[in-house]
Design a protein that fits this description.
Blueprint: H1 2-21, E1 25-32, E2 39-45, E3 50-55, E4 58-63, E5 68-73, E6 79-85, E7 90-95, E8 100-105, E9 111-116, E10 123-129, E11 134-139, E12 144-149, E13 154-160, E14 165-170, E15 175-180, E16 185-190, E17 195-201, E18 208-214, E19 219-224, E20 229-234, E21 240-245, E22 250-256, E23 261-266, E24 270-278, E25 281-289, E26 297-299, E27 306-310, E28 326-332
């Protein structure tokens, strides 16, 4: 009996490196993109298998089957986020410098119209809520969210947020979760009444930016710059149930429900990869070397690849070198 137990233990130990290696990320390729300027969010159109990459005054569009640039949406002033509404074949872009949202056709990539926002400054993050069938832009300089009807292309409301908003995620059931960067807290928004119904403190999180949802376990993952941590929040109680150390200068986070991995993209040139063992049990399994200022990312849930945008910079400055903008692709080994 003892021999059988020992054999079993040896077998389990032997499997441990395999399990770890099976969830190790490695560099896959680099996709060079046209144009110059700053960069922010990336967004994936799952239906059409396209990646949208915000880039100064334009959005670069990549065919994810070929990893080639297939077009761009141009002539904006300073864009941030992209949201897709497949049933209407429309996309929406926040033009922060114009205080507007730009609607475009996702088939032709042509601009449909520019929607000026009322009582809004600095629209940044943007998302589509299928429950209310509305687009929400989150306006960092006016502490509110502008609500747009994607069919009529008109603003239909404003949500007062009580602080400077960052990322937001919908649960598909009428609630939207939104980080307030300057208040170190999490808003719960009713997407029908357009009201904040709860606000949860995120201590010890400081300066929350990116946000991802684990719907099955009723948790959100919020990444925080000031304490260099990812906090796990129970969305039913607002309790912070775990905080895991990550790299510096984080901006985005993504959760892969199939592999149970969480990706935190950091401006220090790393992406922290965290394993979810259970709803409130987590550990860092890899610090993936990426590139300095590769701080935003998108996850393809089908291939499990992650995509990070970045440019090269003049030493000691924030000035991007012309012709160096690209997307870095990493795959599960």
């Amino acid at each position: 009996m003892k021999k059988q137990i020992l054999t079993f233990i040896v077998a389990i130990i032997g499997l441990a490196p395999f399990t770890l290696n099976a969830q190790t990320y490695v560099a896959d390729k680099t996709i060079a993109l046209t144009g110059d300027g700053g960069y922010d969010y990336l967004a994936i159109d799952k239906v059409n298998n396209r990646l949208y990459v915000s880039h100064g005054t334009q959005v670069n569009v990549i065919d994810m089957a070929t990893d080639k640039e297939v077009g761009s949406i141009d002539n904006m002033k300073g864009i941030h986020g992209i949201a897709i509404v497949n049933k209407l074949n429309r996309g929406f872009i926040t033009d922060g410098k114009a205080n507007a949202v730009v609607a475009f056709d996702i088939k032709t990539l042509k601009t449909i119209t520019t929607i000026p926002l009322t009582d809004a400054k600095g629209p940044d993050a943007i998302m589509y809520d299928s429950y209310s069938d509305r687009i929400f832009s989150f306006n960092g300089e006016s502490n509110n969210s502008s609500v747009i009807d994607p069919k009529t292309l008109k603003q239909v409301g404003t949500v007062a947020l009580g602080g400077g908003p960052e990322f937001a995620v919908p649960d598909g059931k009428g609630k939207i979760y939104n980080n307030l960067e300057d208040k170190n807290s999490l808003n719960v928004i009713d997407s029908k009444t357009l009201k904040v119904i709860k606000n949860y403190p995120l201590t010890p999180c400081g300066g929350p930016t990116g946000l991802a949802l684990d719907a099955a376990n009723q948790r959100v993952f919020t990444v925080c710059r000031e304490n260099k941590g990812m906090s796990v929040v129970d969305i039913n109680t607002g309790k912070v149930t775990a905080t895991i150390p990550i790299g510096a200068g984080v901006d985005a986070v993504a959760y892969d429900a199939e592999t149970k991995l969480i990706f935190c993209s950091n401006g220090d040139g790393t992406t922290t990869i965290i394993k979810q063992k259970s709803a409130d049990d987590y550990s860092v399994i890899q610090t993936l070397k990426t590139a300095v200022r590769a701080k935003t990312l998108a996850l393809d849930a089908k291939t499990h690849k992650i995509y990070l945008s970045v440019a090269e910079f003049e030493p000691g400055t924030r000035k991007a070198l012309p012709g160096t903008f690209k997307v870095l692709v990493y795959k599960l080994q």
